[in-house]
Amino acid sequence: MVPARPSLVMMALLGSAASGCAAELPTEASARGEVLFKNCVQCHGDSGEGSTLMNAPAIAGLPQWYVEAQVTHFQTGWRGAHADDVEGLKMRPMSRTLKSAADVSLVSAHVSKLAVNRGEASLVGDVAKGQSAYATCSVCHGADGTGNEAMKAPPLRQLNDWYIVAQLRKFKTGVRAYEPADASGATMKAMAGAVPDEAAMRDLAAYIHTLPL
What we know:
The protein is an all-alpha fold. The chain contains 10 helices and no strands.
């Protein structure tokens, strides 16, 4: 099946944003990263706080290594190429406005320096059940949700609760981790498969949201 494509209107908007930020980019590293980030703010917000309206997660303060990896996955089709990944299909052309690995690194560094803002809790879940289930997650993501670069596990405590549920759903259904070479994705797919239902996903997300930043 050929992956679905964003609408012509969406592509036009993305192209307009990309061309607007591409002109006369500064060469100094931090300034260049900040200007490149302007392509991200239409969905992720001026401070990387995310937008539920755009289904765009908070990205502020995520580690540079993780942001780099996800942008690269979008660029190469390891992520965002599945026909049912509506948000990913929007993100993939945006990732391709970054024309070099150096620029991916610069914008990722800028994102990593933004103040963390995961937003208020938006889901109702059983925190106690979520805490019990999180024991499995803690092996990779840490007991305090701070993540583990060596295991390619991001800091879950910084993520929106609704985004955690959405990604668990995508891993569980194969909308993410469809690329055979994506070893860390395959691990997450297996873990998500062990979460029995949406209620259990919400319980996990509710507990993770209680972890202190």
